[in-house]
TrEMBL record:
The chain crosses the membrane at residues 413-433, 567-586, 606-629, 650-672, 678-702. The lineage of its organism: Eukaryota, Viridiplantae, Streptophyta, Embryophyta, Tracheophyta. SUPFAM superfamilies: Ankyrin repeat (SSF48403). This is Uncharacterized protein LOC109008490. GO terms for cellular component: membrane. Residues 558-670 form the PGG domain. It comes from Juglans regia (English walnut). The gene is LOC109008490. The keyword Transmembrane applies. Residues 16-42 form the DUF4219 domain. Keywords: Membrane, Transmembrane, Transmembrane helix.
Length: 729
């Protein structure tokens, strides 16, 4: 078999050293096998003796050729530093063994897999590299208490030594291996309080692993020995034990740890731990735990957690799951009870199913039966009640915390307000307007934008109108700028990447029209001087609008041209048919006079009138659509000019289709007069394609007509917001 090796590396990875030897050797071995060269490595390193006769000479030359090909393949796949060391070696076998001896790692053992340990499989990783603890490792894995006791008695320091490559102590490993008796014995008799605080390479204490696995009796044993473990951080100090329990869906453990954790550690003055517990409880639908915390310390509702999210902001955001009615409704007890209804049971069912699944996959040591019973006892109804109780506690906490609020950029209450503005949660904003409206004048987001600018940015017209209608707004909010020097018109001219307003609009041209209406609507309410103000980039609001909407303008142009082109084809086809039909009237013409034979029949007159109207209207529509194809596509033309042309074109096209069908029906009735059994099916079948075409485009015509000649979305919703805000004046 001929072996051809192209210049350059033969495998995708060049050997650089120990760090990539394993990958390189695997690739080069597969290559040599594919080229039928691997037997050079597996056989003796000594070449066949060079014989005198021709038969043995052929054998020697074949070996030499394979050896050279193998040697060459290995050499060109090595880095330059390694190549300089091996270039003098002439045997591929010797070269392979030399590289393996120098760069091959010892067997990677001791990397304990939680899944394998839990299963207790025979293929569990060993502890090579920690050979002095191999006996202890095997004793724990096999639940041999006597052997483990003997080893620890002889080596007392081994209880705090790291015996695996993951930096785990014998207690860590006993937890993972589900050896409850050994773990309990270690905690109660062999380890000190300080030993229980040792973390592995992942930053986890043995208690943390026990919580993740869901072994309640072992958790209680460790905390009894060292109560301070409940405050020891894990994952580099980010997660406390109670947070870990919530993250991993350990409901019973979360409640137990809440009771055993000193409440002083959860107060805002001690850091973000308390707020983190509340946010994780909301995330995992442990609403009862979040309620208890907020009830005891209302300030936790506006305290930032370790991810810089405040519980109130998170909770406000989750309310959007309950649909548009929830967003628009006033936030009071009676309304919320009605809106959090059984038809939203799927939201709570997800959390319930997820919690049950977590309990099913949890370990079976130390009270998993209790976990199963707790999970089975949960119901969608109880989750709904817990959610409502938390909602009411949030109401009460707001009235208390508003007397001590922070108004800075990092404020939790400010974060909650801007979350409500972005999501369009009108009820929450109206609650702020009613209870503490001065907050709206001072809170700022990360770009130092106020709530009015945020409402404009996220196209929330009702909230904009509600705030704009307040008498203090013009003096305090309209004239401010953000940290980039943008005034409110600059913000109106900026296209937000994800706009809920545009998601519900079909067609890029209609989206562009809505954006222009928003910009012009805000412009009309502002001081005319704002139009010429420049931000720190030197751009006016109109220039910002053009720059940020460039892609949408191109998409709108493409959409208009594609629609006009397809409609032009239909209009031209109708025009051609109607023109030909005008000279081939049903019944034919009188050869003497040239007039139609059936001229005096009403149906023929209807045919001629309908044919003429269809011809004229289709011709008009074609000309209008051709005009659209040659129009200028600038932002300002999307507001009225281009949509008006499209409306006229579609209207005349639909009219031509309707009159064409009238002409067709008239012709059928003239030719098949009295043959209703043929006429009716023909008319019905001919109407199907026309109906399908019109139904697919008529909705577009209605939407475009409403947005162009009716009240714009901005004006309509803003007036609604002003009306709502007037009740709080």
């Amino acid at each position: 078999m001929a072996t051809t090796i192209l210049p350059g590396t033969v495998v995708p990875e060049v050997l650089l050293g120990k760090e990539n030897y394993e990958n390189w050797s695997s690739c080069i071995k597969n290559y040599l096998l594919a080229q039928d060269l691997w037997d050079i490595i597996e056989t003796s390193m000594e070449p066949p003796c060079k014989p005198e006769d021709d038969d043995h000479e052929v054998e020697f030359k074949a070996w030499r050729k394979k050896n050279a090909a193998t040697l060459h393949a290995i050499q060109i796949s090595c880095g330059m530093n390694i190549l300089s060391e091996i270039k003098g070696i002439s045997s591929a076998k010797i070269l392979w063994d030399k590289l393996a001896k120098k760069y091959e790692h010892p067997a990677q053992e001791g990397r304990v897999s939680l899944k394998l340990l839990a299963a207790g499989g025979d293929n569990m990783n060993q502890t090579t590299g920690f050979s002095e603890y191999t006996k202890l490792y095997e004793a724990v894995r096999n639940s041999e208490w006597e052997v483990a006791n003997e080893f620890i008695t002889q080596h007392p320091d081994s209880v705090r030594a790291k015996i695996t490559h993951l930096g785990q102590t014998v207690l860590h490993f006993a937890v993972l291996a589900q050896c409850e008796d050994i773990a309990k014995w270690l905690v109660e008799e062999k380890m000190s309080k300080e030993d229980l605080e040792i973390r592995d390479n992942e930053g986890l204490t043995a208690l943390a692993l026990t919580i993740i696995c869901g072994y309640q009796r072992m958790v209680e044993c460790m905390i009894t020995k060292n109560p301070e473990l409940v405050t020891v951080g894990n994952n580099r100090g980010l997660d406390s034990p109670i947070v870990l329990a919530l993250r991993h869906g350990q409901t019973e453990l979360a409640h137990y740890l809440y009771v055993t954790t000193p409440f002083e550690e959860l107060l805002p003055e001690r850091g973000p731990l308390g707020a983190t517990v509340v946010t994780k409880a909301i995330h995992t639908a442990h609403y009862d735990l979040a309620e208890r915390l907020i009830r005891r310390c209302p300030r936790l509702a506006i305290t930032l957690d370790t991810d810089n999210i405040c519980p109130l902001s998170l909770f406000v955001g989750t309310s959007s799951l309950f649909g548009a009615e929830f967003l628009k409704a006033p936030w009071n007890h009676m309304t919320m009870i009605k809106l959090v209804s059984p038809r939203h049971a799927d939201i709570f069912k997800y959390y319930l199913d997820n919690r049950k699944e977590g309990q099913t996959h949890a370990g079976s040591i130390g009270g998993s039966g209790t976990h199963d019973q707790a999970a089975d006892s949960m119901s969608i109804r109880s989750l709904k009640k817990q959610y409502l109780r938390l909602l009411f506690v949030m109401f009460d906490s707001m009235s208390w915390t508003m007397n001590e609020y922070q108004i800075g950029i990092e404020s939790g209450l400010a974060q909650a307000i801007f979350t409500a503005v972005r999501a369009g949660i009108i009820g929450f904003v109206s609650l702020i307007v009613e209870e503490k409206r001065e907050l709206l004048y001072w809170v700022r987001d990360g770009k130092t934008r106020n709530v009015l600018m945020s409402a404009v940015q996220h196209r929330q017209a009702i909230i904009f109108g509600m705030i704009f209608g307040l008498k203090e707004t013009k003096a305090t909010l309209l004239s401010t700028r953000d940290n980039l020097g943008n005034n409110i018109l600059h913000v109106a001219g900026t296209l937000t990447e994800f706009s809920p307003l545009l998601e519900d609009i079909t067609g890029a041209a209609l989206k562009m029209q809505t954006e222009v209406q928003w910009f012009k609507g805000v412009e009309k309410l502002c001081n005319p001087m704002y139009r010429n103000e420049r931000n720190f980039a030197g751009l006016t609001p109109e220039q910002v609008f053009t720059q940020t909407h460039k892609k949408l303008i191109e998409e709108g142009e493409r959409w208009m041209k594609d629609t006009a082109s397809s409609c032009t084809v239909v209009g031209a086809l109708i025009m051609t048919i109607m023109f030909a039909a005008a000279f081939t009237v049903p019944g034919g013409n009188n050869q003497d006079t040239g007039f139609p034979i059936l001229l005096n029949r009403k149906l023929l007159k209807i045919f001629i009138i309908a044919d003429s109207l269809s011809l004229f209207s289709s011709s008009t529509s074609v000309l209008i659509f051709l005009g659209i194809l040659t129009s200028r596509f600038e932002a300002k033309y999307f507001r009225r000019s281009l949509p008006a042309k499209m409306i006229m074109g579609l209207s005349t096209l639909f009219f031509s289709i309707a009159t064409m069908m009238i002409a067709f029906y008239s012709a059928i009735l003239i030719m098949l007069c009295g043959e209703s059994w043929i006429v009716i099916p023909l008319i019905g079948l001919a109407s199907v394609p026309i109906y399908l075409y019109v139904s697919m485009h008529f909705g577009l015509l209605v939407d475009m007509f409403a947005s162009t000649y009716g009240s714009s979305t901005f004006d309509r919703k803003m007036k609604m917001g002003i009306h709502m805000g007037s009740h709080f004046a």
